[in-house]
Amino acid sequence: MVDSANPYRDLPSVDRLLADPRVAALAVERGHESVAGLAREVLEGFRSAIAASASLPAPSVVDAVLARAETLRPSLRRVVNATGVIIHTNLGRAPLPRDAIDAIERVSAGYSNLEFDLDAGERGTRFSHLDQTLCRITGAEAGIAVNNNASALLLALAALCRDREVIISRGQLVEIGGGFRIPDVLRQSSATLVEVGTTNRTYVRDYAEAITERTAAILRVHSSNFRVVGFTEQPALSGLAALARERGLLLLDDLGSGALLDTRAFGLAPEPLVQDSVRAGADVVLFSGDKLLGGPQAGIAAGRAEAIEAMRRHPLARAVRIDKASIAALAATLDHYAKGEAEHEVPVWRMIALPTAAIEARARRWAGACGDAGSVEACESTVGGGSLPGESLPSSACVVAPPDGAEAFAASLRAASPPIVARIHDDRVWLDPRTVDLSEDEHVEATLARLLEAPGRGR
Ligand SMILES: *Cc1c(COP(=O)(O)O)cnc(C)c1O
User: Fold this and answer.
1) Which residue out of 89, 148, 149, 186 has the highest number of ligand 1 atoms within 8 Å of its CB and is therefore the one to mutate?
2) Cα–Cα distance between 62 and 416 in angstroms, integer?
3) At 257, which CATH number?
4) Is 295 near ligand 1, meaning CB less than 6 Å away?
5) What's the CA gap between 63 and 311, in Å, rounded?
């Protein structure tokens, strides 16, 4: 009860505030000094409020400290992805390999030879750092990395097809997500789009009949995020390559995800491999750095030396250039492929390869923390990120049937620190351990236990 005779006496000391379990947890996360400072500010605010009204403000001092800390929190922060969607675009796509993070630190904390040739002691190019590894892994003559795949495509079209025609199948005029549509990118590049075939069927002869003296290239776009089934036909890349070669055109292949490992080895449908496109004769193969490649945000173009050189020289290359931190991370990620250890070192592939039994054991431990509200059920993880549509990996989830409804419980999970993002299905909350790092299990279990225990206890 508040001692209304002297409300100042009801104010806790800074030390007592810091001993509160919730404030102590905040201090672990943000640093003791910074939280002590916050506590002093809040206490000062309470003293002014008491001076003005002779009574203690309504929220508890602890709540006020936590609320103030919340408003000072950086907007972009780590979250726990318990959705089971491995490449979750809204949650930042691919988590980076450890070596990639170390590489970022090495080149970002000080200066680097980003555009400096150490042998010659003169100006170099940022493109030199990835060229060799890209060629080694993909089999291409040359490679370039830019800001993301959308800009790689824009740059390829601008540099190689300016004011000329680009032929594309109607079945491939796709929207990738976030309102990004292939025909819009083509328009921005000042290339002219020539549509051939129908939504479900396009033949090599459709492309052949559309070629004029203004044609610069044939563009193939991988239908990353949907599947056309039934009466369908799209020519093999080798067929398009033969046509392009015969008529002196370029063949551009936008793979989107750009797998470098064979997804079939993991029980998934085949996703086109970058190496296969290069081998089949594509002049430029385009793919993302942060989808199935499992690295930082980037767009990669691998292909014929002349075409890549034209992209490097184009003025747009400067506008869409990749930064040093991403080059470092991408180089480290690609190195895992070069060494044949990507399946173990690249988190995206590690998650794809996780054995179901290991996932189930973790789901069981999580459910154990939920008391009567928790159970373990079979579920399906997905690869996501515009790859392998309709494909899933058998998994196990901790399923919570919360007393106050799934929406409210999911919101409480998101309010945890770090926030936990789960899926709602069938009025229950599903948490799939496949996409949760082992180091985060303790936080998930503790949060589930805290949210589901009897009201009032330990809150
Ligand atoms: C995802 C995707 C893109 C865009 O890649 P970003 O790296 O997100 O810019 C382009 N084309 C295809 C086919 C895609 O799947």
Assistant:
1) 149
2) 16
3) 3.40.640.10
4) no
5) 56
Neighbours of 121 (CB within 10 A): 8
83 near 421, Cβ under 8 Å?
A: yes
Q: Cβ(30)–Cβ(72) under 8 Å? A: no
pTM value is 0.89
Q: How far apart are CA 153 and CA 148, in angstroms?
A: 9
- Calculate how far, in angstroms, residue 257's C-alpha sits from the geometric centre of ligand 1: 7
By percentage, how much of the chain surpasses pLDDT 90?
75
Mutate to test the pocket of ligand 1, among 180, 182, 189, 387 (most ligand atoms within 8 A of CB): 180
Judge whether 184 lies within some domain: yes
Please say if the pLDDT value at position 233 is more than 90.
Answer: no
Is any atom of ligand 1 closer than 6 Å to the C-beta of 134? no
**β-pair partners for 81:** 421
By DSSP bridging, strand 423-425 and strand 428-431 are: antiparallel
Q: Which helix (H) or strand (E) holds 136?
A: helix 128-138
> 176 CB under 6 A from ligand 1?
yes
What's residue 174's pLDDT?
Answer: 80
Q: What DSSP string describes 360-372?
A: HHHHHHHHHTTGG
CA atoms within 13 A on the CB side of 326: 21
Same domain, 364 and 383: yes
Q: Which domain holds residue 39?
A: 7-71
Query: How large is the average pLDDT for residues 274-298?
Result: 97
Q: Measure 347 CA to ligand 1 centroid, in angstroms.
A: 20
Please work out whether the CB of residue 172 comes within 6 Å of at least one atom of ligand 1: no
289, 310, 345 — which closes off a domain?
A: 345
**What is the phi/psi pair of residue 430, to 5°?**
-110, 130
pLDDT tens per residue across span 300-325 = 999 999 999 999 999 999 999 999 99
* pLDDT above 90 for 295: yes
Q: Determine the distance separating the centroid of ligand 1 and the alpha carbon of 71, expressed in angstroms.
A: 34
Residue nearest to atom 10 of ligand 1 (CA): 256
Domain-embedded: residue 2? no
CA of 296 to the centre of ligand 1 (A): 14
Among protein residues, the one with the nearest Cα to ligand 1's atom 6 is: 149
What does the pLDDT look like over 396-423, one tens digit per residue? 999 999 989 999 999 999 999 899 999 9
| C-alpha of 26 from chain center | 27
